[in-house]
Write a structure and sequence with these properties.
The protein is α/β, with parallel strands linked by helices. About 40% of the residues lie in helices and about 25% in strands. The chain has one domain: Response regulator (Rossmann fold), CATH 3.40.50. It is built from five helices and five strands; from the N terminus they run βαβαβαβαβα. The model has no long low-confidence stretch (mean pLDDT about 85).
């Protein structure tokens, strides 16, 4: 099976990160890498050209907007797309978003089917 995209999943909650990665891996067509902090995310995007980042908004060391501000200078793919996921009010995050990288904001918890549909849409599969 041809790989549909390289996805970086970023969440400081181990259970949420494992669940997210498992859902994506079971879809079968994505390569998944995990990061547990904003700094880890920025380090990894400087080493690998990801197609998409699924980024928890509230990380222990940074928030999603802070990570997005650093993407252009840190990433091998400066046009990488970002889906922000959060338990916080998604409308509030959308209103405050200033990053062109953020293509979607999703509310946690999400269903596996909806998550894969969002990935396929964002990555134009």
């Amino acid at each position: 099976m041809e790989q549909a995209g390289n996805i970086l999943c970023v969440d400081d909650d181990d259970l949420s990160l494992t669940l997210l990665a498992t859902i994506i891996q079971k879809a079968g067509s994505y390569t998944v890498t995990k990061a547990r902090s904003g700094r880890d995310c920025l380090e990894l995007i400087g080493q690998h050209p990801f197609d998409l980042i699924i980024l928890d908004f509230h990380l222990g060391d940074m928030n999603g907007f802070e990570v997005c501000r650093e993407i252009p200078g840190s990433s091998l793919n400066p046009d990488v797309k970002v889906i922000i996921s959060s338990v916080a009010d998604q409308d509030d995050i959308r209103r405050k978003n200033e990053s062109s990288h953020v293509v979607k904001v999703v509310q946690k918890p999400y269903t596996p089917d909806q998550l894969i549909a969002d990935l396929d849409t964002v990555l134009s599969i």
